[in-house]
Write a structure and sequence with these properties.
The protein is of the alpha/beta class and about 350 residues long. About 50% of the residues lie in helices and about 15% in strands. It contains 13 helices and nine strands.
């Protein structure tokens, strides 16, 4: 990234972070923000949900040591409510969203501010660079940066700079957030996509740049991954219901695959009964899906260590089928707890 010129007039920046059960990563995430070397004024506002681990103690110690860090309560623990609470408590004209398990790369804030000024965009953002530390996390990271795993969104797989449908996290003009009413708290998930959609509907610009990279720490277990993508599927259905014009093949692929696998498996089992032999063709759906995942995983796993490579097919299937199951259930019937509402 370009070197920061301290002689330029830099606007003040407020970094807002909704936090829930982030004991493991919070200290490093905040430290990365404070070490940015941004030449303008900088504050960090943490919106604390009802964590079950030592997150609150970590946050309190960060605020005690660093006057630029402030804490606000987020009793619901839900991401959009936390973001709105942090924005309301902040004071600068540029608002940078960061998650408790997101690590900003050096110079990220200065580069984003330059982009806001140069492009006139309302929100700028870049790549969600998933990086794991264990074999499961490395497999999840590979799946989340793969077209087979997550689709072709530029903030996952990269691409050229320019206007975009959405970006990862985001660096906003405060005036835009205030004009549009902030994040929609009815969207427990997908609230960033929904806000970016409203920005574009209002004639604004969302700008993607591969220059902006945030390291993302993925879920550390298949159970946590399944829960994450199940909720994502539920709320993606709600997005489609509210904005039917946004329906695309990328969002429909997981529910279609899930329905085919379930229907094919049931038909195949029915074909084991006398007189139902033709139903055995139903096995083609789950077997075909498994073959696609296995071949795709083989292509995507080449740079991975053996343990992560072996887990990648299971990770891909967990993401697809959990998303699909959540989509078919729908958010209306979901009993959404704060702990299921994070990114």
């Amino acid at each position: 990234m370009e070197a920061v010129d301290a002689a330029e007039p830099w606007p003040g920046v407020s970094v807002v972070m909704p936090v829930l059960d982030e004991e493991r990563h919070l200290g490093e995430a905040v430290d990365r923000i404070l070490r940015q070397g941004y030449p303008g004024e900088l504050e960090v506002v943490l919106a604390l949900g009802p964590s079950r681990d030592a997150t609150d103690a970590v946050a309190a110690e960060l605020a005690r040591r660093e006057p630029r860090v402030r804490l606000v309560p987020n009793p619901t623990g839900r991401t959009p409510a936390g973001l709105n609470a942090a924005v309301a408590a902040s004071r600068h004209d540029v608002v940078v969203r960061v998650d408790g398990h997101g690590l900003l790369t050096d110079g990220y804030i200065a580069a984003a501010v330059r982009l806001l000024q140069r492009t006139g965009a309302d929100n700028v953002g870049g790549i969600m660079a998933a990086e794991g530390e264990t074999d499961v996390e490395r497999a999840v990271a590979a799946a989340m940066t793969s077209r087979l795993g997550i689709g072709n969104a530029r903030f996952h797989v990269g691409g050229s700079a320019g206007p975009a449908e959405s970006v990862y996290l985001g660096v906003f003009r405060r005036a835009t957030l205030e004009r549009l009413g902030g994040f929609d708290e009815s969207f427990v998930r997908a609230q960033d996509w929904e806000l970016n959609h409203r920005i574009r509907q209002a004639g604004g610009t969302v700008w993607f740049s591969p220059e902006l990279t945030v390291t993302y720490r993925p879920r550390s277990s298949l159970r946590a991954l399944a829960r994450q993508f199940y909720r994502t599927g539920q709320w993606r259905r709600q997005v489609m219901q509210r904005y039917p014009g946004t329906v695309s093949a990328r969002y429909l692929a997981p529910p279609v695959a899930t329905a085919a696998v379930v229907a094919g498996t049931l038909a195949g089992l029915l074909g084991l009964r006398p007189g139902w032999r033709v139903a055995r063709w139903g096995w083609a759906a789950p077997v075909g899906y498994a073959a696609v995942v296995a071949v795709g995983a083989l292509a995507d796993s080449r740079p991975l260590p053996p343990g992560a490579r072996a887990r990648l097919p299971v990770v891909l299937a967990t993401m697809h089928l959990s998303w699909g199951a959540g989509f078919w259930r729908g958010a209306e019937r979901a009993q959404v707890s704060p702990r299921s509402a994070g990114t």
